[in-house]
Specification:
alpha+beta
Length: 519
């Protein structure tokens, strides 16, 4: 039996084939189609004028009518507004028009998407980094969280993208909206999807928000970042009592932990080990929790039998559910065992806050290209493509020249859309619009025991971070400043990466307040 025989989604077909319960595997996902289609089993159906929206049982959904005649909105996921409120149907219904609603929600932090339908248009928007991802089928006219929940036909191999096979296996990466299917595209952050025409339209190019920040403005910017992060974390923690924070020995989760200090006693702090390196993380994380006087739970399946899963059938079921849910990888091929064990060890339910996106504050993708900024050089597109890690080095180098030229032109066209200072921050924009939506924005759908969320996913925060000089971000100046302003006691604990520890120790020995210096 093929998928299209009964208009089953690939999600239903694959789950039935592997003995899985589709509503559970896809519990945090959504699907959108024209009214009249078959409701998904185990999902809740919402009607938005001519559109039907199905949402999984574990996906938060707020639906409201606006005062503006014929305007209706559905918000999926979790959003925190500029007042520090988690958005509810009441918050949505207070908006007087579609325009004010769109402005209001696009200023929110969190992991969410929303559909707004008016008498004039029907649109889908996603959060600032696409962490609650969406794909759409140009042939069928439907939209969904992931490719398997979208397709009601057999997959058509995407021969327009040179790394399809590698990316679909879960090893490489898709980019520029590509998926494993030739006609299925990913919605890119800072674009909305016109549901009637299934076309993407950019609504944010950074030209008004990303600016050159002078040294005497830096302290104020860091203070704003700190305050907003604390506000978002506090809102999530108080609204969702079962909120967890995953911490390690790295920089990004430590920033979140520092900003979470006012509510840290309400959080479940945890760390996990998958190998020797991450075991070192757990030791450092334990010390950080101890400094703040808080308990921490460590999940280490390789050393702690209570977290080990020895049932092969259970492991394969977990693995199949994971890859079917996000659509990357092959059912029947076991995902890394210890990773599955760690995911199962985290208590089910509630939010899990992650430090991702904070990587922008340390200019992660700039790496050796920092000279582009310091010397005002033209952007090296080939280096940009390479740093995207779309495939292993050999596969990347072996791409036919014609295909590589097409990729380079696609990259150039994408970059040309940015205005002002944002155009001079290519690696930051690359991280926001390509790395995150094609990575965690899709992959997190496989982590369905908990709802994973980035407090840092906030367009205003991202604009402020991108405004800070990349070379000074690369020095870890602002991560140090943020931690010092929020929980200075956490500064004294070393990092997993020895190079970070040695660099910061050297700077502090020269001047304990080195990060405040104007150079």
């Amino acid at each position: 039996m093929k998928v299209q025989d009964q208009k089953l989604t690939q999600a239903e077909y694959l789950c039935a084939q592997r003995g899985l319960k589709m509503p559970e595997v896809f519990s945090q996902q959504f699907r959108i189609e024209k009214e009249g289609g078959r409701p998904l089993p185990g999902f809740t159906r919402h009607k938005l004028n001519q559109w039907a929206v199905d949402t999984g049982a574990e996906l938060h959904c707020a639906v409201a009518d606006l005062e503006e005649h014929g305007t209706r909105v559905a918000l999926f996921g979790v959003a925190v507004d500029l007042n520090g409120d988690v958005v509810t149907p009441q918050h949505l219904s207070r908006q007087t028009s579609a325009d004010t609603l769109i402005t209001y929600l696009n200023a929110c932090a969190g992991r969410f998407a929303f559909v707004v339908v008016t008498a004039q248009f029907s649109r889908l928007y996603i959060d600032a980094v696409g962490s609650l991802g969406a794909v759409y089928d140009q042939q069928e006219g439907s939209v969904a969280s992931t490719i398997n929940l979208l397709l009601t036909r057999d997959l058509i191999d995407n021969d327009d993208y040179p790394f399809t096979a590698i990316a679909a296996s879960g090893v490489g990466k898709f980019a520029f909206g590509h998926t494993a299917d030739k006609y299925v595209k990913r919605l890119i952050p800072n674009h909305y999807l016109d549901l009637d025409t299934l076309s993407q339209h950019r609504f944010w190019d950074g030209s008004d928000d990303v600016k050159e920040i002078s040294p005497n403005e830096e302290a104020g910017v860091v203070e704003h970042i700190k305050n907003r992060l604390t506000q978002v974390i506090t809102a999530l923690t108080t609204h969702f009592p079962d909120t967890k924070l995953s911490i390690s020995g790295g920089l990004d989760s430590r920033m979140l932990l520092a900003c979470a200090k006012p509510v840290v006693d309400q959080l479940l702090l945890y760390s996990h080990a998958e190998n020797m390196v991450s075991r070192k993380d757990t030791r450092i994380a334990g010390k950080l929790a101890e400094i703040l006087g808080q308990p921490i739970t460590v999940f280490d399946p390789l050393r702690d039998p209570q977290y080990t899963i020895d049932d092969d059938a259970q492991l394969m079921g977990l693995s199949d559910a994971h890859v079917i849910a996000n659509g990357e990888g092959k059912p029947g091929q076991l995902v890394k065992k210890v990773r599955l064990e760690v995911l199962e060890a985290v208590p089910r339910g509630g939010l899990v806050m992650r430090g991702n996106v904070g990587e922008l504050l340390r200019a992660m993708l700039w790496r050796r290209a920092i000279s582009e900024y310091k010397e005002n050089k033209a952007h090296n597109i080939q280096y940009g493509l390479r740093i995207m890690m779309l495939a292993d080095r050999e596969s990347f180098d072996n791409v036919a020249p014609a295909e590589k030229n097409i990729l380079a032109q696609t990259y150039a066209d994408w970059l040309s859309a940015f205005g002002g200072v944002a155009a001079k921050r290519p690696f930051d924009m690359l991280y926001i619009e390509q790395f995150l939506p094609h990575g965690p924005g899709n992959g997190f759908y496989g982590f369905s025991r908990n709802f994973y969320i980035f407090p840092f996913a906030d367009r205003r925060l991202l604009s402020l971070v991108a405004s800070l000089p990349p070379d000074r971000r690369r020095e870890l100046r602002y991560t140090e400043a943020l931690i010092s302003a929020s929980a200075p006691e956490l500064r004294r604990m070393k990092y997993t990466r020895q190079s970070d520890t040695l660099h910061l120790r050297s700077k502090r020995n020269q001047d304990p307040n080195w990060f405040l210096a104007e150079e």
